[in-house]
Amino acid sequence: MIKKSWQDKLFDFCNTIFMILIMFITAYPLWHVLMGSFSSPRLLSAHTGLLLKPLGFYWDSYISVFTNPNILSGYLNTLFVVVVGTLSSTLITAIGAYCMSRKAYPFKRTIMFFFIFTMYFSGGIIPTYLLTNNYLHMGNNRAVLIIPVLITTYNMIILRSGFEAVPDSLEESARIDGANHIRILFQIIIPCAKAPMAVIVLYYAVSYWNEWFRASLYITDKSKLPLQVILREILNTVASGDAAEAIALTESVRYASIIVATLPVLCVYPFVQKYFVKGTMIGAVKG
Amino acid sequence: MKLLEKKVSVELGNRDFLKEKRKKTFREMKRNYQIYILLIPVILYFLVFKYGPMYGAVIAFLDYKPAKGILGSDWVGFKNFITFFKDPYFFRIMRNTLIISFASILVTMPCTILFAVLINEIANTKFKRLVQTVTYLPHFISLIVICGMVTEFCSMDGIITSFFVAFGMERQNLLQNPDFYRAIHIGSQLWQGLGWGTIIYLSALSSIDQEQYEAASIDGAGRFAKMRYITLPCLIPTITIMLIMDLGRVMNVGYQKNILLANTLTLQTAEVIDSYIYRTGLASSYPRFSYSTAVGLFKSLVNVTLVVSANKFSRKVQGSGLW
Amino acid sequence: MKKTFLKRLLSLAVASTMLAGCMTGCGQEANNDVTTESKVESAATESTVESTVVPEEPVELTMWAKFSSTELKDMGEMEFLQIMEENANVDITYAHPSADAINEQFSLKVAGNNWEDMVMYDWSKYPGGTTQAINDGIIIDIAPYMEEYAPNFAAYLEANPDIAKQIINEEGQIYGFPCIGEPSSAVTAGYSVRKDWLDKLNMNAPETISDWEAMLTAFKQQMGATKPFTLTQTYLFKTNFFAGAWGIATTYYLDNGVVKYGYAEPAAKDFVATMADWYQKGLIDNECFGSSDKIGRANVLSNDSGAIFGFVASCIGTIMDSAKEANPELDMVAVQYPVLNEGETNLYIRRTAEVRTEGTVCITSKCKEIEAAMRYLDQFYSEEGIIAKNFGVEGLTYEMVNGEPVYTDLILNNPDGLSISDALTRYTQASSPSVGIIDGRYYEQYYVMEQQKDAFILWNENSAEAVSFLYPTAAVTTPEEAEELTSIVTPLETYVYEEVAKFITGDRSMDDWDNFVTQMKSMNLSRAIEIKQAAYDRYVGK
């Protein structure tokens, strides 16, 4: 074991203090929301400044959220979309990234530009809707939340960089052993690029989880709406009419919905974290 | 005569060369046939869902009336674009958009990279995970809530204001001062996105071979030396890609934050293209489909130009780029 | 090597297809389940309903409307609507858009041309307005059918020519069945002030501008209010009703039938100078530019403010309600829109036009059963229909007491804990913008607090007179004019608001006012006024 010099120790100490500071600053928004969600709407209305503890102890905002008949279906729909969507997206993105990360072959650059161009030009809401709804008849179906958004070019690029970083020697030795591209992709590249894979799994999962606009546009059947749309509807229902209570309630219900929507993500994240640990590559190539 | 002969022979030479090239290309394609097959579903997806709807971009050149549809609406050529360029506020919103975007990249990118490197240096795994989880949190809080907090903190007796007053600033509502708007806009972006932004860099950092660090230690390199000579150079490919992609979003400063944080007093520095279109589009009872599509196309054009130039530059300097 | 590759590719393909199939399949199944479910439900309702009409098959209609409810699946489950459907012998299947994307979904319907039989929406948002919608063939002109199929509505229009003017266009076409509010309840917002402070200071409610200045100064100096008058930037210079004291509006208004733009008028200089003076003296909330209604209310509750502009329910109501816990001493009183000199009247008030554009039901060109649809919608304009819409179902949500409808405890003291507003939304459509006539009597019972009742009466005092001053929202421009107007107004308004803001904060000296007016006029203001005038003349000339 190489001993740590005093400079290293000082650095670690300063770093730790710095991290704690940053954590306080970045943790505040969620804390504020958490405290607000338990606060009495009336007191919340009158409150200005930092919110460090709940004003009164008030469960009703959560009750508003959880007694909504669609909340359960909202969770289930979102769960479905996140699991199926993330799996499918990751799969097809990996295929695309893999192809783009191989050594030069004819038209590789053209195809790459073909993909990248779409990051900058799009048809807009109306043509996309007409295509998806009228021509492909995908409207009002959970598939519409997944298939049209299968690949995010941005993610494919990230994954491509990750695949490119895998040493060529691995691919070569696999080829010598007679492996074809699919085997190389699934048995060598992906296992060696766990970190970037984890990144795009995380990105896709979060984006599917957060999806609401497209759902509110395409899906008219309440039982098929994902969680975020249900939560927004709760907010809108609470805010309808100009009742005194409704307005006050909106704020704390908004906070409660954020907690309800965010907590599951926070629980999942630790599972993904382990892929971001130093040195996942050790032992892959010897010599 | 001789010159003509030379020309002809060069031409013939070229033709042969091209023939050879084409033969070589086919050979290469046959060798890589698997890749092309694998690419089929991917390309299909792009064609249908990304390129398919692009016909809608033509709305920018029409006087689009939804009832008439795209085929029925009149062609107006560049009229919508010219209306946009002639708007008295065109220069202001272009300027603000570009300044906010570039400044944002200049500030957030180094901070995020530095933060990622520092997180990576944390020895205790549990603490490291804690830091990561906590700093990711603001990313999930909706913009409305974040802006509500920013409005609070920047008010006359808000904590950020008080902080600066302690350093001698006159007590005022920070959000009503046009000179501060950009800083607040970028600052809140940093607050919300710092943690989440480190993901991509942490992933890149985790793939750096540990042996290099060990070898460097043996050679007597300290923390900072290691960062300078190992960590940062290994990050450069990732940084380049991220930078090029960010440059491609320069014109896309969204309208939401602006609507939430800016007000009449700060419009001179705060108003960007999207917020101007949004604000004025809502105020009028006449939804301007063609106009906003035209503006969107213009923005995309600028973005693409930036990306292509950045990519060319990167290829020259580094040898590789986005494509 | 080739073989294994192709094999693997095949298995990959099969897996993907299964995945895709599963996704679409799951969707379809659920879809089918829901449709059968609703069919069963509506069959059930039909069989339990007793019909006094000759029993024939009820006509099936579809309607697209905005609707949010945590309890009910769709509008069709509202009791009073079920009775109305029964009376007209129709069976309506509802489709509801997501509240968030309602405008986008509407645009998509226009683009895709798929419509239900009836559509409830703010049709003024349709590009070119309702007239254009008729010309484009999306909705039908119901004028030819009025006599036969909509006798109640026809009678109402005849009895109320002023309102009819807002509905029938120049060519005599009628676009649909709008939401109408009675003129006596057109004003639901105004200025209110801390009564408990006035009492402490021994002052009367302010009437004139000088009263206001004295009061605000006292609030600041004696009550320690840091923001005596809390406003949002909208109410400071976009729609500042104080301008009415000087006889102008901060937008387009009428002066004996001539359209004028307030900020271009000479009186604007005095008005803005006063506002600037108050702002710089700290009488107006110096943080108003970034403020919101919510922050304004918080200011009042935390004793930073003593005067505010807002609605009867959301301002007075919310503040008084929160005050119960947060600030028990607090009391609010509504004051009349201010004037320059005693005895004058301020006509620049927040008055909503009788014909509300939101909540209009139009019959689309896709409707095959026009008679049935019209008979159904016509009910809302009959006496029984008005009561049903506003008060619900007799015996359930209201009782007739001395010939007047009085809400039952189901609404006023809901056993499930619903607030009055929520109960009203659940059982009636009194407070939601929807087809029919809003009965002023509902306000009397909805505004529970004394302060609210008083405010409502006070603010509506000059409602009728204000009509001659306020520019009518029903005066619509032609589509070509609309486009031209937008391209002028977009930069013009941006300029005006920014400059006025600067005058108020003192960033620009009032001496510079004339330059400002000159610049404003050079931005084609006269053409904008011309267009507005033309629209008004057309509206009045009917």
Tell me the helix content of chain B. over 70%
Radius of gyration of chain B: 26 Å
Unreliable residue stretches of chain C = 17-54
Residues in β-strands, percent of chain B: under 5%
Largest sheet of chain B: 2 strands, antiparallel
CATH superfamily of the largest domain in chain C: Periplasmic binding protein-like II
- Which structural class do you get from the secondary structure elements of chain B? mainly alpha
| CATH architecture label of the largest domain in chain B | Orthogonal Bundle
Overall pLDDT metric of chain B: 87
The two chains with the largest interface, and their residue counts, are: A-B, 90 and 93 residues
Structural class of chain C: alpha/beta
Radius of gyration of chain C: 27 Å
What is the percent of helical residues of chain C?
40-55%
Please identify, by name, the CATH architecture of the largest domain in chain C: 3-Layer(aba) Sandwich
- Strand arrangement in the largest pleated sheet of chain C: 2-1-3-11-4-14
Q: How would you describe the shape of chain B?
A: globular
CATH class descriptor of the largest domain in chain C: Alpha Beta
Q: Whole-Å distance between the termini of chain C?
A: 84 Å
Written overview of the protein:
The complex is a heterotrimer of chains A (287), B (323) and C (542). With 287 residues, chain A is mainly alpha-helical. Chain A has a domain at 68-239: MetI-like fold (Orthogonal Bundle). Helices cover 68% and strands 0% of the residues of chain A. Residues 279-287 of chain A have low confidence and may be disordered. Chain B is mostly helical and 323 residues long. Chain B has two domains: 2-65, no CATH class; 80-318, MetI-like fold (Orthogonal Bundle), CATH 1.10.3720.10. Helix content of chain B is 73%, strand content 1%. Chain B has 15 helices and two strands. Chain B has a two-stranded antiparallel ribbon with strand order 1-2. In chain B, helix 4 (79-86) packs across helix 15 and helix 5 (90-121) packs parallel to helix 9 (178-205). Chain B is globular. Chain B starts with a helix and ends in a 5-residue tail after the last helix. By secondary structure, chain C is α/β, with parallel strands linked by helices. Helix content of chain C is 48%, strand content 12%. Chain C contains 23 helices and 14 strands. Chain C has helices at 2-48, 79-87, 102-112, 129-135, 146-149, 151-159, 161-167, 195-201, 209-222, 233-238, 267-280, 293-301, 312-326, 370-378, 383-391, 409-412, 420-427, 441-446, 450-459, 463-466, 479-505, 513-521, 525-540; strands at residues 59-64, 90-95, 118-121, 177-181, 189-194, 229-230, 252-255, 258-261, 307-311, 332-335, 355-363, 398-401, 404-407, 436-438. Chain C has a six-stranded mixed sheet. Chain C has a four-stranded mixed sheet with strand order 6-9-5-10. In chain C, 45% of the residues are buried. Classes of the chains: A mainly alpha (287), B mainly alpha (323), C alpha/beta (542). Chains A and B meet through helix 1, helix 4, helix 5, helix 6 and helix 7 of A and helix 1, helix 2, helix 5, helix 6 and helix 7 of B.
